[in-house]
Design brief:
5-stranded antiparallel beta sheet, about 30% helix, globular, binds adenosine-5'-triphosphate, binds Myo inositol 3,4,5,6 tetrakisphosphate, binds magnesium ion
């Protein structure tokens, strides 16, 4: 729990690309001003020997890292691990990733949601087996089954006809391509916070295109192109992103909450398209763990609020189990609010309330 001076430590373990985009000076400074130190985990040493950390933030794969987390957890049972490797693993397979969407129950009169029709293909024989295809219509998108963050796992192909299947390398997921007006919605989730933004997507596929000689089109991370790449393309010049209406915020928030609970994850985004055939039908096509949050407006504040929430909530849970004497020692200079029935709560003086003093609190 809180170290010297009532500060909290969050250790992070990220690949260099993610570290560069996410761990910005602006985030580190804001977190520091609110009592949280972001500390890089040294991958050359055992995690359990480092810290102390109140929380571990990570996006790394592999058995060694998983067992390090298990070891860390057993020695630091009160630390928060964001997020559990088992929960993250569900997102490494494009079938299990979207299965959870099909299980969600959300009451909404005006909008509906789901996933596109899709099948999984493990070998080349099945790829050309018409029975496997009964459910699907061209065009389809072929996506690698594994979504493990490698460049390969983002390599896709839009396939217009049977001929286009020749180039594909199973195991893949074949997902029906749904015309959606060339705009995708990315819904970023950070705990309870939900933010939906618009991005350019693949253009709609016309009947003429389907009947043309072209059999497939390969692409990768189309919604993630740098701005200059986007403006180079004739298609993007033609599109008017501003004209597209966002989906209703409360609807996206309900889906986000449902997914967060069902998947037991705090840090993810999901991609949503609006089916142009029905203006109120939304399809979830992708879910990513720990996405590019730095692209989210005001990400520093959102993430710092969330970190504060995590570490203080955990500390409250722990402290509530102790006697008042232990509590006083544990709060280490911070304020303690004394309530009826001997329930004690810590009122952070530098975090979440931006340093404002809380009424009725007793300074210890
Ligand atoms: N079923 C679909 N119908 C229409 N367009 C789709 C469909 N699936 C994917 N796309 C388009 O292809 C893009 C890439 O697909 P997807 O999001 O599954 O890949 P990804 O590599 O996992 O993306 P990310 O970079 O978000 O992780 C989407 O952003 C969207 O533009
Ligand atoms: O940085 P990373 O390598 O984690 O890349 C992630 C990328 O974030 P970035 O924009 O910071 O690159 C995300 O972009 P947005 O959805 O937020 O647009 C998305 O493409 C994830 O799928 C990527 O994770 P991966 O699937 O490759 O593990
Ligand atoms: Mg995507
Ligand atoms: Mg993805």
């Amino acid at each position: 729990m809180a170290g010297e001076g009532g500060r909290f430590g969050i250790g992070y373990a990220l690949l260099p690309k993610k570290e560069n985009s996410f761990i910005r000076e602006s985030l580190v400074k804001l977190a520091r001003s609110r009592g949280i130190d972001l500390v890089k985990i040294d991958m050359g040493r055992p995690l359990a020997d480092q810290g102390p950390f109140d929380c571990v933030l990570h996006k790394l794969y592999g058995e060694d890292w998983k067992s390090q987390l298990v070891d860390f957890r057993s020695r630091n049972p009160n630390a928060v691990i964001l997020d559990s490797p088992v929960a993250i693993e569900r997102l490494h397979n494009r079938i299990s990733m979207l299965q959870v969407v099909s299980e969600l129950k959300i009451e909404n009169q005006s909008e509906t949601f789901g996933i596109p029709k899709q099948i999984v293909i493990y070998d080349r024989e099945t790829l050309f087996d018409s029975q496997a295809w009964e459910l699907l219509k061209f065009p389809v998108i072929a996506k690698p089954l594994v979504a493990d963050g490698s460049a390969k796992s983002h390599k896709m192909a839009l396939v217009y006809n049977h001929e286009g299947l020749n180039k594909l390398k199973p195991p893949i997921v074949l997902q029906e391509f749904v015309n959606h007006g060339g705009v995708i919605f990315k819904v970023y989730v950070v705990g309870e916070y939900v933010k939906c933004v618009k991005r350019k997507s693949l253009p709609d596929v016309s009947e003429e295109k389907l009947n043309s000689l072209e059999s497939s089109l390969s692409f990768s991370q189309v919604s993630n192109l740098a701005t200059h790449q986007k403006s180079d393309d004739k298609y993007y010049k033609m599109m008017h992103l501003e004209d597209t209406e966002l989906p209703p915020q409360s609807f996206m928030a309900d889906i986000a909450k449902g997914l967060r609970k069902a998947m037991n994850l705090n840090l993810f985004n999901f991609d949503v398209i609006r089916d142009t055939r029905f203006g109120n039908r939304y399809l979830i096509i992708d879910i990513n763990y720990f996405p590019g949050y730095a692209k989210m407006p005001g990400y520093e504040t959102v993430l710092t609020d969330f970190f504060c929430d995590m570490v203080y909530r955990k500390e409250r849970e722990v402290v509530e189990e102790y006697t008042p004497e232990v509590l006083v020692a544990a709060t280490d200079g911070r304020q303690v609010l004394s309530c009826e029935k001997e329930v004690r709560k810590i009122v952070p003086n530098s975090c979440c309330s931006d340093g404002e003093e809380m009424e009725n609190s007793i300074q210890v």
